[in-house]
Amino acid sequence: MRAVVCHDFGEASVEEVDRPTPAANEVLLEIQRVQLSVTECALYQGESIAHAEVIAERLADGPARLFGHEFCGTVVDCGSEVDQLAVGDRVYAPGKIPCNECGYCESGFKRYCPSKTYIGYDIPGALAEYAALPAEALRPVPDSLTDSEVAALQPLASSVLCVRDSGILSGDIVAVIGTGVMGYQCAQLALAEGAQQVLVVDIDAEKLELAADRGLHPINGTECDPVDEIMARTDGVGADVVFEAVGGDQSHATDGSDPIAQAMGAVKAGGTVVQVGYIIGDVTFSARAVRKKSVTWQNPVTGIAPTGPGRDTGNFAAELVASGRVSISEYTTHERSGLDSFEEIVDITTNKAKYGAKGPAQLSI
């Protein structure tokens, strides 16, 4: 089969490799579509962010099959121990793979497993015609979803966890700083959780228009001070919950105009700031400022969480899109065909403004 093989940072080729045989706990997937994440593209280009050490180690060991944790695939073979999936199921991977051996796993807290295996980082992902992956990390999807929607589901599954961990109560005022993929999703989910009003901040007028179409209240950061505007719209109290969904390179969490500082400034006393975006490097913050407002700075844990008997956040994310309660298709604006388009997909995802892309680009295989 053909697969993308990485030789160094920023250096990859499409090569013929052996088609994998699924282990007892795995399924063999035929891959239809992959969506490269911003994190994967940054790692490929050598940025020192989450998973950078793992990527460097794998490249140091020789050519490596990397990336591709956001995908749509169809089960074509099942290992002998797999009973939750069947040949013909279309699936995606909302979760990481817990070790199932540590104290966290044995006591039912798999989300907190310190030794998770990450698809596309620790093991080969879906940048290939076929992939063999543990069934535990996969979830089937409704037939009504397109391949493009399925490939874009993994960020929504993470957004579901962010909103569930935020503690939103019915009637809360919620603010979201940044309406990228996960910010847009968290804002919609906040409404679904019963928020009375969701204020969304961005500097992209098109994204703010999309947000307004979904019943969200846009604030254009080029036209006002977002913190002042949120305070004005909440009678000087601030939002009950604020999602910081920008991430990236920021310097200070409580002073200045960085997105985290805006979130800390816009939240009410006793409120919660949810850190959705991944931060590059370190940030400085004033412990006194956080303590003075009694702010909870929530950093959600990735993975899959149960929502009830036989149900979890991975299934729920797919159902949200299938029912129309949450929309994600607006952000899948660019796609290319064939594994040979890998480098172009990286460029589009890294330079979305240059290409007019709203979210990561997708690659059909």
UniProtKB/TrEMBL annotation:
Keywords: Metal-binding, Oxidoreductase, Zinc. PROSITE patterns: ADH_ZINC (PS00059). Coiled coil: none annotated. Residues 24-143 form the Alcohol dehydrogenase-like N-terminal domain. It holds the Pfam family ADH_N. Its cofactor is Zn(2+). GO terms for molecular function: adenyl nucleotide binding; anion binding; oxidoreductase activity, acting on the CH-OH group of donors, NAD or NADP as acceptor; zinc ion binding. Residues 184-298 form the Alcohol dehydrogenase-like C-terminal domain. The keyword Metal-binding applies. InterPro entries: ADH-like_C (IPR013149), ADH-like_N (IPR013154), ADH_Zn_CS (IPR002328), GroES-like_sf (IPR011032), NAD(P)-bd_dom_sf (IPR036291), Zn_alcohol_dh (IPR050129). Belongs to the zinc-containing alcohol dehydrogenase family. This is L-iditol 2-dehydrogenase. It comes from Halohasta litchfieldiae.
